[in-house]
């Protein structure tokens, strides 16, 4: 029996097993194994690259956008104010920030259920910065095979200058990243000159150095270790997957049995599938997996293996799509279902939360007042025979302009106000104002009366608020 007829007699399971990589030769779970990513071009690679540059540009430019007399996005931790363009979020409004995080979480759940780990493959900062670092690595050290050979060679002048240039470029990118990140918390027009002229505070230097080396380590040295061993999303993503989730999948029925052959050879006569076992799909994978082994949690859905496989199919004259974005249902020959309960549920919850967030953000009051009662005595009778309650008012002007305010009481008839009733509060200031309210006991209907302290801006009548409290009497 010749070799070809023997190959045809293998069962499907045996043929797949024959072409599985030897785990003893390449342990992809060992963090000490370096992955040399091969450069590839194609539709998905270009899309990922463009999205990465857009995300990078957005990150770098945002702290430099002006908004009035400050930068548009500024998380002012010293004064406990978050400025996002025209919106100022105070500690009292941090429920908005919590809601924003919840929206981001459900958006991630929704996208993952529908499109798999596309967040990881296209927009995750770890992926964006890793591919930027790989780009510099390829430009300075050469393609994959040259880098492997260089690392195996002894140190010489060529290796020293290339490695030095690469790590210098990585550190420069990391430093710019760290400075940009710190600029979201310290005004960018202050942090750059202060750091470069050695006039910044110790805290600023600490965070710049910390994020410089964190970026350098994550994107330069750890790379796939972050995705495989440290990212929690990789661990719980399976809970959101189902058979209709779009994944990067290998068509086993079409591709097996794998094996090399010439372009002119007919694979059917050789008993082979369309996969020529070139291993390019493995070489271009940033996490070093073999997508032909089936769905794996390490796959970040970046599509690099699709582009590599499509190029191979083009050279061989075979149709594209041996590796493609697909679903398990489609690979099994079943009908795909787009609308399914889990996806609809995530979509409904996400839509509701977005609407609630928009409403809450649009209705944030630019003015807040807190009323604190005197805890030493519920009430006292003054020398005029009036029942008097003492309060401490905390008035917060949440706008970026100075305002004049008028204070009053609602719920009491013929009351007297002791203290300032018209006050001026600077932008972003919290004013503490002690006051007393007195009333004739004949105007009280009981020992406790519900009242409201009302405050309205004299500069803009639309800016007003009130705080409920109680007036106690005998």
Automatic annotation (TrEMBL):
Where are the bilayer-spanning segments?
A: 51-67, 94-115, 169-186, 198-216, 343-362
Q: What is the phylogenetic placement of the source species in the record?
A: Bacteria, Pseudomonadati, Pseudomonadota, Gammaproteobacteria, Alteromonadales
Q: Name one GO cellular component term.
A: plasma membrane
User: Which Gene Ontology molecular function entries are recorded, alphabetically?
Assistant: 4 iron, 4 sulfur cluster binding; metal ion binding
Query: Do you know which Pfam families this protein is assigned to?
Result: Fer4_18 (PF13746), Fer4_5 (PF12801), FixG_C (PF11614)
* InterPro entries for this protein: 4Fe4S_Fe-S-bd, 4Fe4S_Fe_S_CS, Cyt_c_oxidase_cbb3_FixG, Electron_Trans/Redox, FixG_C, Ig-like_fold
4Fe-4S ferredoxin-type domain: which residues? 266-294
Which PROSITE patterns does this chain map to? 4FE4S_FER_1, 4FE4S_FER_2
Q: Which UniProt keywords apply?
A: 4Fe-4S, Electron transport, Iron, Iron-sulfur, Membrane, Metal-binding, Transmembrane, Transmembrane helix, Transport
Any keyword ATP-binding? Answer: no
Q: What's the name of the protein?
A: Cytochrome c oxidase accessory protein CcoG
Asked if Cell inner membrane is a keyword of the record, the answer is no
């Amino acid at each position: 029996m010749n070799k070809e007829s023997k190959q045809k007699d293998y069962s499907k399971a045996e043929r797949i097993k024959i072409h599985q990589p030897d785990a003893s030769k390449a342990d992809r779970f060992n963090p000490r194994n370096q992955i040399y990513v091969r450069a590839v071009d194609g539709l998905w690679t270009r899309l990922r690259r463009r999205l990465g540059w857009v995300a990078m540009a957005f990150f770098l430019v945002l702290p430099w956008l002006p908004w009035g007399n400050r930068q548009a996005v500024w998380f002012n931790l010293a004064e406990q104010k978050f400025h996002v363009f025209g919106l100022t979020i105070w500690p009292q409004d941090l429920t908005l920030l919590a809601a924003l995080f919840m929206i981001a979480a459900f958006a991630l759940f929704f996208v993952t259920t529908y499109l798999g780990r596309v967040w990881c493959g296209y927009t995750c900062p770890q992926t964006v910065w890793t591919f930027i670092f790989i780009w510099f690595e390829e430009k300075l050290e050469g393609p994959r095979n040259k880098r492997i050979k260089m690392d195996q060679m002894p140190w010489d002048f060529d290796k020293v200058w290339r490695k030095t240039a690469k790590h210098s470029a990585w550190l420069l990118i990391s430093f710019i990243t760290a400075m940009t990140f710190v600029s979201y918390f310290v005004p960018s027009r202050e942090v750059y000159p202060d750091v470069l002229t050695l006039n910044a505070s110790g805290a600023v230097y600490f965070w710049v150095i910390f994020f410089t080396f964190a970026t350098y380590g994550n994107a330069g040295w750890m790379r796939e270790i972050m995705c495989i061993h440290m990212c929690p999303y990789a661990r719980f993503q399976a809970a959101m997957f189902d058979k209709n989730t779009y994944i990067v999948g290998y068509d086993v029925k079409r591709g097996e049995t794998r094996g090399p052959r010439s372009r002119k050879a007919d694979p059917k006569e050789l008993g082979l599938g369309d996969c020529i076992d070139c291993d390019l799909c493995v070489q271009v994978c940033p996490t070093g997996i073999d997508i032909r082994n089936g769905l794996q949690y390490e796959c970040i859905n970046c599509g690099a293996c699709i582009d590599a496989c499509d190029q191979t199919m083009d050279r061989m004259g075979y149709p594209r799509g041996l590796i493609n974005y697909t679903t398990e249902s489609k690979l099994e020959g079943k009908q795909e279902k787009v609308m399914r309960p889990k996806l609809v549920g995530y979509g409904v919850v996400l839509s509701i939360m977005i609407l609630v967030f928009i409403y809450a953000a649009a209705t944030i009051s630019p003015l807040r007042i807190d009323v604190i009662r005197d805890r030493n005595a519920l009430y006292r009778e003054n020398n005029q025979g009036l029942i008097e309650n003492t309060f401490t008012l905390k008035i917060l002007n949440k706008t970026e302009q100075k305002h004049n305010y008028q204070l009053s009481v609602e719920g009491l008839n013929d009351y007297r106000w002791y203290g300032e009733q018209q006050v001026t509060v600077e932008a972003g200031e919290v004013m503490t104002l002690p006051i007393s309210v007195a009333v004739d006991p004949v105007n009280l209907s009981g020992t406790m009366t519900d009242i409201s302290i009302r405050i309205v801006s004299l500069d803009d009548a639309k800016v007003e608020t009130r705080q409920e409290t109680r007036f106690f009497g005998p």
